[in-house]
TrEMBL record:
InterPro entries listed in its UniProt record: ADH-like_C, ADH-like_N, ADH_Zn_CS, GroES-like_sf, NAD(P)-bd_dom_sf
PANTHER family the UniProt entry points to: ALCOHOL DEHYDROGENASE 1-RELATED, VACUOLAR PROTEIN SORTING-ASSOCIATED PROTEIN 11
Keyword vocabulary terms for this entry: Membrane, Metal-binding, Oxidoreductase, Transmembrane, Transmembrane helix, Zinc
Metal-binding in keyword set: yes
Top-level division of the source organism's lineage: Bacteria
Cofactor(s) needed for function: Zn(2+)
Domain Alcohol dehydrogenase-like C-terminal residues, every copy: 186-312
The UniProt record lists the keyword Transmembrane helix: yes
Identification of the protein by name: Alcohol dehydrogenase, propanol-preferring
Source species: Roseovarius azorensis
Species lineage: Bacteria, Pseudomonadati, Pseudomonadota, Alphaproteobacteria, Rhodobacterales
Family matches, as SUPFAM superfamilies: GroES-like, NAD(P)-binding Rossmann-fold domains
Length: 350
C-alpha cells in the first residue's frame, strides 16, 4: 500500500510503499476513500505549535515520531478484520474516530480516549489517512455513515466532533439562550450548523472580518458582531438581552477570551476550544462572584462522534465547500493550505 509520510519536518512528504499490514486481535483495515487535510497536519509537518508570546511547543517532546503518515479526517470502507474483530463489519462505509488513547486507563474506560494521557490518535501518534489503507485498533471506532457524502463525513471526525463536543458542554440552556460563537472560520460555521441542526435557539457570531460576518448572517446567525469594535462587549450584551449566558471561544486568544469574560451575564458558561495562544488574566473574585464557569474542550470522544453522525443522518447539516484531489497531491495540497491558497477544505481521494 502507498502512503505519504513526513520523514523530516518542513520537507516534502515522501511516498512510501509498504506491505498491507497483517491484522491482529480486534484490528480492522479500512480502505481510505477520503482523507481531509487539516491545519493540525500543517503543525505536525512543521514540528511545532505556536503557544503565543513567542513560545513554541515542540511535537517531538510529545512523543510524536517520524516517519509519520498524516491524516486524521478519514472516511472509507472496512475491507478486512483481525481474528477477534467480528466479520460482520466488513463492507461498512464509515468515518474513523481518530482521537484514540491507550484503551486501558480509567479515562479510556470512561469513554474519554480523546483526553487519555497516552494519546494514540490516528494521523498523529499512529499512521493516518494520507494512505490507501489505515489500520484501526477496533471496529467500534469505525462509525457507519450510511449515505452521508464521504467528503463531508471525513470532516465530522475533526471540526465536526470538536465543535459538537464543545456545544454539548453547555447542555440544555442553549434551547433558551443564544450561543455566542467567537471566530467565524471553518469551526465557527460548523458550530453554527450544529446549533441549528440541534434545534437550539441560535447563534450570535463574532469576528473581525466583515466578509465572514456577512456570510454568518446569510447562514442564519441571529446577529454578527465585530470583535474589533471598541464596544464589542456592549454589543454582545445588547444582542443577548443583558449579557451572554453561553460563549464558545473558537479562537482562544487573549483578546477573544477577555472579550468573552467582558460580555457575559452572571452564571455564564465559557468554553474555550481555540489554540491561538497567549495568557488570560482574570481578577479571581470575578470567578466566584459572577459566578463564571470557564471550561476547555479538546476534540471529542467516540460517543459524541456517533451522536453527531446520527444528527447529520437525521437532520442533515449545511455542507462545507470541499475540493477533492488525488492522494498524490498530498504535499502540494498541504502547501496550498499553508499559503492560504484554498477556498474550502481539501479532501484527498486515494
Ligand atoms: Zn483536523
Ligand atoms: Zn487511556
Amino acid at each position: 500500500m502507498r502512503c505519504y509520510c513526513v520523514t523530516k519536518h518542513n520537507e516534502p512528504l515522501v511516498a512510501v510503499d509498504t506491505e498491507t499490514p497483517t491484522l491482529e486481535g480486534t484490528q480492522v483495515l479500512v480502505k481510505v476513500t477520503r482523507a481531509g487535510i487539516c491545519h493540525t497536519d500543517l503543525h505536525l509537518w512543521e514540528g511545532s505549535y505556536n503557544l503565543g508570546g513567542g513560545k513554541r511547543l515542540d511535537i517531538s517532546d510529545r512523543g510524536i515520531d517520524l516517519p509519520l503518515t498524516l491524516g486524521h479526517e478519514i472516511a472509507g470502507e472496512v475491507v478486512a478484520v483481525g481474528p477477534d474483530a467480528g466479520a460482520s463489519v466488513v463492507g461498512t462505509t464509515c468515518v474513523v474516530h481518530p482521537w484514540l488513547g491507550c484503551g486501558e486507563c480509567d479515562t479510556c474506560q470512561r469513554g474519554q480516549e480523546n483526553i487519555c494521557l497516552k494519546s494514540a490518535s490516528i494521523g498523529v501518534f499512529r499512521p493516518g489517512g494520507y494512505s490507501e489503507y489505515v489500520v484501526v485498533p477496533d471496529p467500534k471506532f469505525c462509525v457507519d455513515i450510511g449515505d452521508i457524502d464521504p467528503s463531508q463525513a471525513a470532516l465530522l471526525a475533526c471540526s465536526g466532533v470538536t465543535t459538537y463536543s464543545a456545544i454539548r458542554k453547555f447542555g440544555e440552556v442553549l434551547k433558551d439562550v443564544p450561543l455566542v460563537i467567537i471566530g467565524a472560520g471553518g469551526l465557527g460555521f460548523m458550530a453554527l450548523s450544529i446549533v441549528q441542526a440541534m434545534g437550539f435557539k441560535g447563534a450570535i457570531m463574532v469576528d473581525l472580518d466583515q466578509t465572514k460576518r456577512d456570510e454568518a448572517i446569510r447562514a442564519g446567525a441571529l446577529a454578527a458582531i465585530d470583535s474589533g469594535a471598541d464596544d464589542a462587549a456592549e454589543q454582545i450584551i445588547a444582542a443577548t438581552g443583558g449579557g451572554a449566558m453561553a460563549v464558545l471561544d473558537l479562537v482562544g486568544a487573549e483578546a477573544t477570551t477577555s472579550l468573552a469574560i467582558a460580555s457575559v451575564a452572571r452564571g455564564a458558561h465559557i468554553v474555550i476550544c481555540g489554540l491561538y495562544g497567549g495568557e488570560l488574566v482574570v481578577p479571581l473574585p470575578y470567578i466566584p462572584m459572577r459566578p463564571l464557569h470557564i471550561q476547555g474542550s479538546w476534540v471529542g470522544n467516540l460517543a459524541e462522534l456517533r451522536e453527531l453522525i446520527g444528527l447529520v443522518r437525521d437532520r442533515g447539516l449545511r455542507t462545507v465547500p470541499v475540493v477533492e484531489r488525488p492522494l498524490e497531491t498530498a504535499f502540494d495540497s498541504l502547501m496550498d493550505l499553508k499559503q492560504g491558497r484554498l477556498l474550502g477544505r481539501v479532501v484527498l481521494v486515494p
